[in-house]
Amino acid sequence: MENIRIVSLIASATEIVCVLGMEKYLVGVSHECDYPPSVKNLPACSSSKIEMDERSYAIDEKVKAIVQESLSVYKVDADLLEALQPTHIITQTQCDVCAVSLKDVEDAVCRITSSQPKIITLEPNSLADVWNDIKRVGNALGIPEKADSVITGLNDRMQNIAVRTQQTDHSPTVASIEWIDPLMSTGNWMPELIEMAGGVNLFGEADKHSPWMTWEQLVSKDPDIILIIPCGFDIERTMQDIPFLTGKNEWQNLKAVESNNVYVADGNQYFNRPGPRLVDSLEILAEILHPDVFQIRYEGSGWIRLQV
């Protein structure tokens, strides 16, 4: 095992490697890998072609233009990969916009002849897929028992929350927003998390990609709770684009706004990363939806109440 050299090109995969106790074998990461903080000292093997400090609409337009031309949103540094001599490279096929794609890695690896790394491809569309990905990484690294133990521990934490929410007598309706302009709801594992946290998911389907939505649809559903978690944005970055929502004429009349139940959470660190911290994401949801049942632990760091 001492000869293992891992390059992880997805933030969630980096967290998986670390939770499996294999951080010491990481030799390179993606430009987005920042947890645990110690991995930020490793060489970044990728970069983005998009500036994330622009407005949501401008980012969306640039991403669409790049993808429409069958190009990648990210660049992989093939020369750095060659220098790092990885034995394993972890990538994904779930979304070409969210992280480095399999094609990016294959193109780079074609120029690596000496280390001939094994490519581990993840495709998380649901909670079950996330557990399977942890198992896949564990198997590839020769630690299947550790992967099983980690998965059991994560599942136990989730089931404990689900059992407690089933005992509540209130199931608020939830609109979870993954992009502000244009509006996009959450999909994939988020509907599962909302249901486990004791809420009723209004938009998006489990195991399916996040769908676009209209402002009229949001107004029509009039949710009890609005959760805003743009993909790749932390709380501070999300707040820059909040006026796009709060400036709408119907905003003040929404039930969630009138009851002061609009929340901004760190989508980048939690909800948008299909790895072990999806359990933390569920804990965040549970304390937002049922503050009378769950201890408030993440307020201020993982989420804030939007003052409207």
Number of helices: 12
Largest sheet: 6 strands, mixed
**Termini gap:** 54 Å
CATH fold group of the largest domain: Rossmann fold
Beta-strand segment tally: 12
Given helix and strand content, the structural type is alpha/beta
Tell me about this structure.
- The N and C termini lie far apart (54 Å).
- This protein has helices spanning 11-19, 56-68, 78-84, 102-109, 127-140, 144-166, 190-196, 215-221, 235-241, 243-246, 255-258, 278-289; strands at 6-8, 26-28, 46-48, 74-76, 88-92, 118-122, 173-179, 184-185, 200-201, 225-228, 262-265, 303-305.
- Helix content is 37%, strand content 14%.
- The protein has 2 domains: 6-149, 3-Layer(aba) Sandwich (Rossmann fold), CATH 3.40.50.1980; 171-305, Nitrogenase molybdenum iron protein domain (Rossmann fold), CATH 3.40.50.
- α6 runs parallel beside α12.
- Mean pLDDT is 88; it is low at 62-73.
- The protein has 308 residues and is α/β, with parallel strands linked by helices.
- Strands 7, 8, 9, 10, 11 and 12 form a 6-stranded mixed sheet that branches. Strands 2-1-5-6 form a 4-stranded parallel sheet, with helices on both faces.
- It is built from 12 helices and 12 strands.
- It is globular, with a radius of gyration of 20 Å.
